[in-house]
Amino acid sequence: MKVLLIEDEPLLLNTMKVYLETEGYVVTTAATFRNGLEKMYDYDYDCVVVDIGLPDGNGLDLIRQLKAHQAQTGIIIVSARDSLHDKLTGLELGSDDYLTKPFHLPELNARIKSVLRRRLYGGQNQIHFGKITINSHTHQVDVAGQLVLLTEKEYQILLFFVANPDRFLTKAAIAEFVWGDHMDLANSHDFLYTHIKNLRKKLIEKGCPDYLRTRYGVGYLFTAHP
Amino acid sequence: MKLLHKMMLNLLLVAIPVALGGVWLFYSFIHAGIQYEVDEQLSSDLESIRYQWQHPGSDTRRIASSRIEITRTGMPILPTYSDTLGLDRREKILVPMRQLTATIKTAPGVQYRVVIRQPMGEFDEIARLLSIGVAATFVVLMAALMVLNGWLIRRLWHPFYRLIDQLRQYRLDSTGNPQPVMTFPQSTTDEFNQLSSALNTMSRNLQEQFRAQQQFTDNAAHEMQTPLSIVGHELENLLAIDPLNAEQVIGIERAQDSIRRLVRLNKSLLLLTRIENHQFVGEHINISRIVDELAQTYHDFARHHGLRWECRLTPDVYQTMNPYLAEVLVSNLLQNAIRYSEPASRVEITLTPSCFMIQNQGEALPFPAHQLFDRFRKHPAHPDSTGLGLALVQQIAHLYGIAVHYFYQTDTRLHVFRLDLPQPAPTVGFNTV
């Protein structure tokens, strides 16, 4: 999987690159509009992550050119401004997702995966993890062919785990992925715990091995390895 | 008190004593003058009587006047003038009179006491009429002066009142005003010209400072986002290192927690600045749907806290607002209600076409209610909150002309937030993002 990151802040670019490389992507980076444009024409990418606030041009123009050049590439906009206007323009231009800075890296990873799934596998919306099969279109979850009835929030949590296997995920990152900005509340971790406990119970009831490890009360690790 | 009224009052305060004193003085002068003349007349009459007496051949008719009384007396007296009352023969009433009493010696040892009287009524009448005439002229003069003064003041001070009107409308953060620097008009009066140019300079300076400050907040909040992202990401990458002990993981998590607080704070500050800069476009939106969706989002959480979540929403209530800001407004109020509710109490959410109300049960505020919407006003029991949630509520409500009321019912221990929605929805113009 080839990913192009266009971001003017070198340190941020580096952390994203390091993270995505450990996820197994081949990552190319560009720090300016011009550089991004060049790299865009050099290779075909599966996904482009572009910051729209570049010093020498607007990321939205980059998306316009990219759409004209290679329409099948997935596009994720990253913006420092939480602007509905930019978001709508970006989505109208054909980008797939919009992330507001600052974001969690596992969240970026989950979004890239979801974009790739939509772009690359077309109608096939099945995600497999061990005995679990997720249909990202119908939000249906099976464990070894048996249907598991999950609430929407439990489904979201599972999706986040499956997108970030073998990675230590903090409760805050999970809560933010599932509830967005709405869970700034003091004891939201406790609340999250209840949802995860229910999800775990439902999966185990259907004969699914327990993939979830708790780490020091701070977060979780979703792994198929014992 | 208006300048005009003050001036009039002062004028009157001086004019009334002057008028009263003047009339009294005028009357006294005239009275004294007349008396002097009458006394002279009486004395000349006395001389005339004496002359007639001493020369019996002359005309005696005048001695027989009703004004003169002659009686025989033993004692000589000095001529004395006095005021008395006497009967007016014609009008049969008592009238004030001036009288002269003297003695005339006709022969040695034969003396007559002579009393001559002169009615003063006519003279007093004249003096009174004169005084009234003068007083009336004075009053008319005063009235004319006051009218003239009033008219002049109104005319001369007109530019001043116009300046005041303009100043009253002056707002640094005026809604959707594309040119917030106000220009005050010139006038033909030097003093007002000076005032006007001083105000112009002040308004320009204020505007520049205000803009600089806004820009600073905006830039500072913006510039902070990238380093915050980097720190957050680095910490996440640290967590991915495999052999980490509990202490390290908990330390990293604690650092992330602080970063999260900073991020939240930063986002709220940025939002506040952007609202102040009018960077949000309003549209006709269904408030009922927004409240319903958010109430459902928070329902799970409320249930987790053991709260009874009661919604009474009138469907299809429309307002002209920015959808994102409407969401922030409602969700901040809902979060507030959850955060400060007692366990197992009831939260009531009511939406009608004219108002949106949230009630939750809990302890009274530990600080005065008017500070509730201040920035960084935190409940001592929740030091981790940003202290900006309700400030944002206030700011957004203000932007759309929504009145926010808060009160605490001591008997039912209810915190009540009531937002009066404007009727009908106003059209507010905003700059686009």
TrEMBL record, chain A:
Q: Where is the OmpR/PhoB-type domain?
A: 124-224
Q: Which UniProt keywords apply?
A: DNA-binding, Phosphoprotein, Transcription, Transcription regulation, Two-component regulatory system
The Gene Ontology terms for molecular function here are: phosphorelay response regulator activity; transcription cis-regulatory region binding
What Gene Ontology biological process does one annotation of this record name? regulation of DNA-templated transcription
Recorded GO cellular component terms are: cytosol; protein-DNA complex
Please give the DNA-binding region boundaries: 124-224
**A Pfam family the protein falls into:** Response_reg
4-aspartylphosphate PTM positions read D51
Q: Which residues form the Response regulatory domain?
A: 2-116
Indicate what this protein is called per its UniProt record.
DNA-binding response regulator
State the organism's lineage.
Answer: Bacteria, Pseudomonadati, Bacteroidota, Cytophagia, Cytophagales
Automatic annotation (TrEMBL), chain B:
Q: Which Enzyme Commission numbers does its entry carry?
A: 2.7.13.3
User: Where is it located?
Assistant: Membrane
Q: Does the keyword Membrane apply?
A: yes
Q: Which reaction does it catalyse?
A: ATP + protein L-histidine = ADP + protein N-phospho-L-histidine
| Key words, A-Z | Kinase, Membrane, Phosphoprotein, Transferase, Transmembrane, Transmembrane helix, Two-component regulatory system
The reply on keyword Amino-acid biosynthesis is no
Q: Where does the chain cross the membrane?
A: 7-30, 129-153
Segments forming domain HAMP: 154-211
Q: Which InterPro entries match?
A: HAMP_dom, HATPase_C_sf, HATPase_dom, His_kinase_dom, HisK_dim/P_dom, HisK_dim/P_sf, TCS_sensor_his_kinase
Tell me which residues make up the Histidine kinase domain.
Answer: 219-425
Q: What class of enzyme is it?
A: transferase
CC terms in the record's Gene Ontology section:
plasma membrane
The molecule here is called histidine kinase
Q: Which species is this UniProt entry from?
A: Larkinella knui
